[in-house]
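Incident log, structure service

09:12 report received: a user says their structure output differs between two submissions of the same chain.
09:20 pulled the input from the user's history:
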Amino acid sequence: MKQMKIGIVGTGAMGTGIAQVAATAGCDVVLFDDNNEALLRAKRNLSATLEKLVAKQKITADEAALTESRIKYASYLTDFADCELIIEAIIEDLAVKQKLFSDMEDIVSKTCILASNTSSLSVTSIAGSCKIQSRVVGIHFFNPAPVMPLVEIIPGLLTNENTTATARSIIDSWGKVTVIAKDTPGFIVNRIARPFYGEALRIYDEQIAGIPEIDQAMKQIGGFKMGPFELMDLIGNDINYAVTETVWKQMYHDARYKPSLTQKRMTEAGLLGKKTGKGYYNYAEGAALPIAEIDEVSARYIFNRILCMLINEAADAVYYGIATRDDIDMAMTKGVNYPKGLLKWCDELGAANVVTFLNDLKEIYGEERYRPSVLLKSMAIEKKSFYNG
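09:34 re-ran on a clean worker, output below:
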């Protein structure tokens, strides 16, 4: 693919990370922020990141210098005039994004693709402020963008097929793994992953097990690299809670996505995880994570409960055409490092066993939260699997 000129809006960790990815891939990048201090900070942070990569011998000093040389720091949107693709990576506020997209339309060419890195807002809603909605698409990177391989490509309701295909081709050329997602709340990963956090919080709230024990169960039985509370602390409890609340509201308060009061209180208290030094665990210098011991029966119950809820979400994503079977399993392994695809996991367990486990929970709790997917129920009856017919 020919060398392109890419615009990036936003100099936070995500915007700077995307700029690094694009520049490393050989693109000329315009990184915009209307705050000059933020621009200077982004430049310092990027230089420090590249220096670390050189020190670790991941790249050469010449490669680092070349990457830096391709990035122009801009404080005026007019610097985007000749860009072919612009990716917005700013605050998750629909009104703010809509105004930005409307403003950019008056500056760029009619063929420039306008993309949002939104993780939970509707691409169609963002595009609604534009005169040419067909050129607006979602390009959702995962943090940190230079490290995480997955990128979700999300066409809005009026996105042109050529726009989607071109956006995917560009991101593929940057060495990323792309999947196509329907424009629904949370797209693939942030929708399907909700029970990993939500059900773990529910188990904790019910005093079935403590935080270290729940994390240990998922690592010990499931082979997850991180437990749900460790991962929430890494993501930031404020960010994770905000995404949960957004998905819940956009799904018309479906009980499956109901936020936890525990997570709300953690956010209100400023216990946000690693970035504040304390969350569900203490990250102060010298502090050690607790060593959890949990018996096999309890660990198996916790693992099965969270996994079955995850599988149920993945099956529903297939049923409602959110993404293909292969893209769903790819997204969960490449986007959040799950040890295997959830639909493959379902085949190993058997759809009938997953349905039985969920029905037992639904009987105990009397809540729609645990209703099995229509697809899973039909697969159980017909003795079908996702990968073996």
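09:41 both user submissions now match this output. Likely a transient worker issue. Closing.
09:42 reviewer note: The two ends are 38 Å apart (CA to CA). The chain has a mean pLDDT of 96.
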